[in-house]
Amino acid sequence: MAKESNSESSGTMVASGIVTGLAVMCVALRFYTRIRTKAGIAWDDWWILIGLLTTLLTGGLLLWGMFAYSSHTVLPC
Prior knowledge:
By secondary structure, the chain is an all-alpha fold. It has one domain (about 10-70). About 80% of the residues lie in helices and about 0% in strands. The chain has helices spanning about 5-35, 45-70. The longest helix is centred in the first third of the chain and has 31 residues, at about 5-35.
């Protein structure tokens, strides 16, 4: 597999940061409106939050793995 250049890598990081920020904002606004309108938080809201948290965890692990691989050092567990 070909290595990405620094500009491609930084562009990917910026785009993923923007999309992640939008996802967090949308979920936060959903909870805010559900509480504010007194509609109540239902089970589907909690599943959305769990999905967001697992997505953030996966993204964090991918970043950690990418930096560990790019520096050619083994990080302690």
